Predict the structure.
Amino acid sequence: MKKLLLATAMVAVSGAAFAQDVVRLGTEGAYPPFNFINDAGEIAGFERDVGDELCARAALTCEWVTNDWDSIIPNLQSGNYDVIIAGMSITDERDEVIDFSQNYFPPAASAYVALSADADLTGVVSAQVSTIQAGYVAESGATLLEFATPDETIAAVRNGEAVAVFADKDFLAPIVAESNGELMFVADEVQLGGGVGLGLRESDAELKDKFNAAIQTMKDDGSLNALIEKHFGPETAKF
């Protein structure tokens, strides 16, 4: 009986999240240009701009919090924040444990980056833990080397722990451009996931509806495409 009452109480609390004075947006703060911490110590990036605009259009008062990627879904479920906005691709596996808004970033390419064009992609490949890229590498026949942060996946290639890193191309592109030829894209791009969406508790249907409506208005008036181009460049896929 106690367990039943506790479960009921948890559903009631999570289901009322949209009615709170403040909706808490959880992000990683370590995945530029989607999200990062700027020199002033503030959350910045594409998702900061998108999240602020969505909250304004949905007439919601929002605050931002950061959370490590590897516990970002469990901490949504336990009520530490109300929405995940952290470059999270929509997948069937994730959709079994949380709910998603419509995508606010279209399905995009994942890519390999290595130190040489002839890197053996059947060797050790690094990826961030609990990402769709990590799952792909694990099934590819390569040896998966997982890290908690995206920066560590790049460092593993530079220090020889991995022959390549596999990640979102939009994350890798500026790193390759700034490496002065040290790092390069290798092999073909791979399409994974259904785009990037907001992650919500399954009980927060009304909050999801508010954000879906706001995302759609940004798609309709072109402002979402403008933010994508601002942060990722004109060649990035848009709506």
Remarks:
- The chain has nine helices and 13 strands.
- The two ends are 49 Å apart (CA to CA).
- The chain has two domains: 2-107+194-232, 109-191.
